[in-house]
Specification:
This protein is α/β, with parallel strands linked by helices. The protein contains twelve helices and ten strands. The chain binds D-glutamic acid (DGL).
Length: 276
């Protein structure tokens, strides 16, 4: 049985920038007793076009930083970092660690009826074939088709969530998945839940969208419970329940964060992540 104080420690959540806030938001909704320390690597984003070695090195630095914040568990809230760095990070720490890829892959494998699953994500995530590997561990017969959609991240960050430009680009990216006749589509990048309406409209009612951000929060709750680490009560009134750190441009991060998270984000602090 863990000491109460230990269970009340925060969960560390990190991403290459703002995208992982879609994961933090799900954790806030599903396990509101939990405190969160969020780190967004705004100085070095994007990860999606970088090499495995670089993304792994960045992720290791962030995990070292989060450990200085006395976190009880870490969520890798970035699909690209989850695709590349999980093995290395598992070696680095001895607290529970969870990425976004496995939970999304599991639900997609359980969801598809016609055995045709699509995955959209960054070049890194799609190139790694990681979603396909996890799905095949559960259902080897499923046909998994990946499609990198590199323009979605800047469109989302420009706020063009519902816009003719986004419609046009999404139609082009998604046409081959429509032609294949997938019945399940994984939104395999942190930003994509923010354009799920557009993606859903283009794919049509016959396609179920899987949101790894949502599924990760479900799995995190189960993981914390399994380790007897669920916080038993909400943080005390006035306590800073959610803390945000970035590697650059804290004000810009704060503006974006406040546009997607309803709890007022009072401050985001810049830290020198290269030093960790
Ligand atoms: N957070 C990244 C992901 O989910 C998208 C943004 C980036 O390329 O860094 O893969």
């Amino acid at each position: 049985m863990e000491a109460l104080e230990y269970r009340e420690r925060p969960v560390g959540v990190f991403d290459s920038g703002v995208g992982g806030l879609t994961v933090a938001r799900e954790i806030m909704r599903q396990i509101p007793n939990e405190k969160i320390v969020y780190f967004g690597d705004t100085a070095r984003v994007p990860y999606g076009s970088k090499s495995r070695e670089t993304v792994t090195r960045f992720s290791e630095q962030i995990v070292r930083f989060l450990q200085t914040q006395q976190v009880k568990a870490i969520v890798v809230a970035c699909n690209t970092a989850s695709a590349y760095a999980m093995d290395a990070l598992e070696k680095e720490i001895d607290i529970p660690l969870i990425g976004v890829v496995k939970p999304g892959a599991k639900v997609a494998a359980e969801t598809t009826k016609n055995g045709r699953v699509g995955v959209i994500g960054t070049e890194g995530t799609i190139g790694s074939g990681i979603y396909s590997s996890y799905i095949h561990q559960i259902r080897p017969e499923v046909q998994v088709t990946g499609k990198a959609c590199p323009l979605f991240v800047p469109l989302v960050e420009e706020g063009l969530w519902e816009d003719p430009v986004t419609d046009e680009i999404a139609s082009r990216y998604l046409s081959e998945l429509i032609d294949i006749g997938i019945d399940t589509l994984i939104l395999g990048c942190t930003h994509y839940p923010l354009i799920r309406k557009t993606v859903g409209r283009i794919m049509g009612d016959g396609v179920t969208l899987v949101n790894p951000a949502y599924e990760t929060a479900v799995e995190l709750k189960a993981l914390l419970s399994e380790h007897n680490l669920l916080s038993p009560s909400p943080p005390a009134l006035g306590e800073n329940r959610y803390r945000f750190y970035v590697s650059d441009a804290a004000e810009k991060f704060k503006r974006f964060a406040n546009s997607i998270i309803k709890y007022g984000i009072l401050s985001a602090k810049t830290i020198p992540i290269e030093e960790y």
